[in-house]
Amino acid sequence: MKKIEVIIESVYIKRLLKVFKKHKIGGYTVIKDVEGYGGHGFQTADDVSDVLSNILVFSVCKKELLENMQKDLKKFLETYGGKCIVSDATLL
């Protein structure tokens, strides 16, 4: 199993979830108002409009599903920005 964690600007969530759906990743969790420091400086979680806030989307899937999705996920990140972290996972 693989855990996929994607941090993106909240305005792009529907586009990211289309990529997940295309590759049959139906289970995921969305955490709103993620803040931290990165290549674009400090991103706060208290944006009034919610347009510029960041979110974290994570899911766990079979390795084969991730391999099929990687090309589309990379294209998404190149187009809209964000970070994706993939790690091994065990479901109990």
TrEMBL record:
It comes from the Bacteria. One of its GO terms (biological process) is regulation of nitrogen utilization. Pfam families: P-II. One of its GO terms (molecular function) is enzyme regulator activity. This is Transcriptional regulator. It comes from Sulfurimonas sediminis. The lineage of its organism: Bacteria, Pseudomonadati, Campylobacterota, Epsilonproteobacteria, Campylobacterales.
